[in-house]
Amino acid sequence: MNDSDPTRDITQSTSHDANAQPVPPQPQPPTGGARVLVIDDEPEIQRAVGARLTGEGFVVAGAPTGTEGLEQVARWRPDVIILDLTLPDIDGVEVCRRLRTWSATPVIVLSVRDNDDDKVAALEAGADDYLTKPFSSRELVARVRVALRHVAGAGDAGQGAAGARFETGGLAIDFARRRVTVDGAEVHLTPTEFEMLKYLARYAGKVITRRTLLLGVWGPQYATEDHYLHVFVGQLRRKLEPNPSRPIYLLTEPGVGYRLRSPA
Questions:
Q1: Domain assignment of residue 10, yes or no
Q2: Residue 157: inside a domain, yes or no?
Q3: What beta strand segments (E) does the chain contain?
Q4: Does the bond joining 134 to the residue before it have cis omega, within 30 degrees of 0?
Q5: CA-CA distances (angstroms) from residue 207 to 19, 181, 244?
Q6: Average pLDDT value for residue range 178-197
Q7: CB-based contact 67:99 (threshold 8 Å)
Q8: Number of domains within the chain
């Protein structure tokens, strides 16, 4: 629980890297009808978030516990989930972990816990984003739109990539069908994982700086969130690499960024 104003607006600024690779424009998908489930036991947060998102054209539902939240996800099929970590019955990290066994719905954690260990734990459990309380309601709306863009990206996944299919070694990406296989076996990725892999495939063989990757996949408000890359690169390697500790597809360029192996 937090006694601070939960919707205190904050101002963020981002610097420009003259040497970074061009970042493709990131259109905001229409919000009409998009469903957002807020799992939080604080009535004030439910009201504040619900009012702001409803005003932006979203359809909002709430759940005060982890158990009810999981049931709502299965029953209502939201497009985005906003999840508190400190719930009365199940810790939010565990809720996220359970969700990821059967759902790829984007999860935005909204929590008073602001240390890096909690952020990394939530992201490693399958969360797509992390925002701390007190928060800017404007920023929350922007992050919901980023999550929706990642999901919408599945529909136009082939645009900007080298054709409708990418292959390097045993790794194959079918952009039109949003299907990834390694040595013929299908690999299931979350929308954010797929968006990151798609971006790397677009520039396969080229080194992508950390900042450019953050801007290209998440947007300008994430330009300094390096721990996001650490977590999502690790998740992709665990799913794609024969030996994650000795990657052959998703390579690190020390001190610079990452590079996806060139097409075969």
A1: no
A2: no
A3: 35-39, 59-63, 80-83, 107-111, 129-132, 165-168, 171-174, 179-182, 185-187, 208-209, 250-253, 257-260
A4: yes
A5: 12, 23, 19
A6: 93
A7: no
A8: 2
The per-residue pLDDT for range 100-154, each reduced to its tens digit, is 888 889 999 999 999 989 999 999 998 999 999 999 999 999 999 989 988 876 5
- Residue 204, domain CATH: 1.10.10.10
Q: How far apart are CA 62 and CA 43, in angstroms?
A: 10
Q: Looking at the structure, do residues 133 and 222 belong to the same domain, yes or no? A: no
Q: Which domain holds residue 80?
A: 35-152
Coil/strand/helix, residue 107: strand
In the DSSP assignment, the letter for residue 252 is: E
**∠ at Cα 256 (253, 262), nearest 5°?**
45
Length of the chain: 264
User: Is position 25 within any domain?
Assistant: no
Please identify, among 152, 176, 211, the residue that sits at the C-terminal boundary of a domain. 152
pTM above 0.85, yes or no: no
